[in-house]
Amino acid sequence: MIGKDKICAVVAAERPRSMWAQLERALRQTRTVELRLDWLLTEKEIHAFLRRVAIKRPRATLIATCRRIEAGGRFRGTIANQLLVLAEAIRAGCSWYDLEIESICKCPPELLDVLLAEGRQLASAHFFRANPRNWKSIAAELRRSSPVAIKIAANSSSLADGVSLLRFAKSNRNVVATPMGDLALPLRCLALREGSALTYAPVERATAPGQMSLDVMKNLYRADRISGKTRVYGVIGDPIAHSLSPQMQNAAFHARKMDAVYLPFLVHDLRDFLAAIKSLGVRGFSVTLPHKQKILRHLDDCDSLAAAIGAVNTVVVRGDRKLYGYNTDYIGVLRALQQRISLTASRVLILGAGGAARAVAFALAQAGTAVCVCARRPREAKMLARAVGGETVMRGQLRKEFFDAIVNATPVGMFPAVEHSPLTSNELNCRLVFDLIYRPIETKLLQLAARRGIETVSGVEMFLAQGAAQWEIWTGERAAITAMRRAVLDALGTGKKKNLRARA
C-alpha cells in the first residue's frame, strides 16, 4: 500500500516557490503526492525546495521523483547526482522514491542500499512511444532491485493497449499501471477499480500524455470512489476534448446520488471502443461527430425514429454487449424552436447534411415545417432533402432567399476554431438563427446574426434537452435538469447565465 489516498497529485514546477504552492494545493484534496524534483531548473533549487519540505514536514505520503532525460524526465545530472537528490528527499520526509529502470540497470544494488535504504522504492518503466505488452518480463526486470512496488507507464495507441496493461495490474499486487496518451484518459479514471495501486493527476502542469488535472479527476470523475459496482457511461467522438457532456451527466448522477460515472472517450476506431465495452463495464454512451451514422452498422437494434433519421446519438448496452440505438437530438431541436416560431407555418434552412442535420430535418419535417438543406456536399444535401420531402438550396442562392430560421448543424465555429462562421452576414436573411454548437456559447455565426438584429438561439438549449433525454433512457429516472444546467453554464462561464435561464 503506497498511500491512503489512491489519487496521487503530481507537483511539477520550475521554481521552488511554485512547487510549494502546488504542494499546498494538492494537500487540500489528497494526502499522496509525487514531487517531480527534476522539473526544478537547477540542483540548487532542488535543495532549496527540499529544505522547506524538511522544515514544514507535510503530513502526507510523499514520493520523490528525479527522472533523468534518458527516461523521459528533465534532470540533466548523472545517476550519482540523481541518487544524492533522492537521498536528500528521503531525509526531508519523502517516504517513497521513484527510480526508473534506466538508472536501476546501471546502479549497483549495494549503492541503493547505502544511499536510499530508509525510503521505499517504486521501480518504474516508461514507454512513451511503443506499447510492449510483455508486461510479465518488464515486471520481472523491475523487481530485480527488490522494490516495494513497481510502476509501468505505457503509451496506448488504442483502448485495447490500455486495457491490457490494467488487466496485468489487476492480476498482480503492488503494481501502478498508467496508460498514457489521449485515448487512455478515461482509463486513468478507471485504473484504481482495475487494480492499479495509484493513479496520477497533476495539480497544474501535465507531466505525461493524457493526464487530467487533480481537480477534474477528484471532483468531476470522483476516480477514487469508482468501484466494481459503479455504472460506467461515456461519450465517444473525435475530437472529444471540447465536450461538456461529462460535466452535465456527472452532475445529474451526483444530484441523484447514483453510483455512476460518465467519461469522455476519444475514438478514432469504433471497433476498438466497442471491443472494450465489456471489459470496462460500459452501460451506455453518447455518440457525437463523426460516429453518429457509422455506429448504425454496429447496433443490434434501433429505435424506429433513429433508424428513419439514419443517425444515433444515444446507445444503451444490454445483456452481453447488445447495443440499442436512439436519437434524442430531435427533442432538443423541437424544444429550442417551438417556443419561438410556429413550426407548422415556417420555412427553415438547415446547414449541413450529417447526423445532427438529419435529426434536425426529421424533427422539423414531422412538425410540419418546410425544410431546406444547404450542404458542402450537394449529393448528401439532395438525399437528406428528399428523405424529408424538402428542397435543396445552393450556397450561391442564400443572399436572395428568406427563411423564418436558419439552423447550423455543421461543426464550423466550434471550439477551438471559434473565429469561423459557416455563413457570412449578408447570407443571414431570416428572423432567427439557431446554432447547434454550444461551445463557445456565442459563436461567430450568432454574433453576426445579433449585429443584424436577428434573434439567436444558442446550442446550449438543445444540448441540455438531448442530454436530459439520454440520461433518462439510461437510468429510467427523471433527470436532474437544474443540476445539469448549472454544471454546463458554470463550465461555459457566467457571462450568459441570466440570459440563458430566462430564455430556457
Write the layout of secondary structure elements.
Elements: E1 7-11, H1 16-26, E2 32-36, H2 43-56, E3 61-65, H3 79-92, E4 96-100, H4 101-104, H5 109-116, E5 120-127, H6 135-142, E6 149-155, H7 159-170, E7 175-180, H8 185-190, E8 199-202, H9 214-220, E9 231-237, H10 245-255, E10 260-266, H11 270-280, E11 282-287, E12 301-302, H12 304-309, E13 314-318, E14 322-326, H13 329-337, E15 347-351, H14 355-366, E16 370-374, H15 378-387, E17 391-392, E18 403-408, E19 430-435, H16 444-451, E20 455-457, H17 459-475, H18 481-492, H19 497-503
Parallel strand pairs: 1-2, 1-8, 2-3, 3-4, 4-5, 5-6, 6-7, 9-10, 9-11, 12-14, 15-16, 15-18, 16-17, 18-19, 19-20
Antiparallel strand pairs: 11-13, 13-14
Helix pairs in contact: 1-2, 2-3, 10-17, 10-18, 13-14, 13-17
Q: Give the total of domains.
A: 3
Average pLDDT rating: 94
Q: What proportion strand? A: 15-25%
The CATH topology assignment of the largest domain is: TIM Barrel
Q: Determine the number of helices (DSSP H or I, runs of at least 4 residues).
A: 19
Structural class designation:
alpha/beta
**Biggest sheet, in brief?**
8 strands, parallel
Per CATH, the superfamily of the largest domain is Aldolase class I
Number of strands: 20
What is the name of the CATH architecture of the largest domain? Answer: Alpha-Beta Barrel
Basic shape: elongated
Assembly of the depicted chains: single chain
Calculate the terminal CA-CA distance, rounded to whole Å: 50 Å
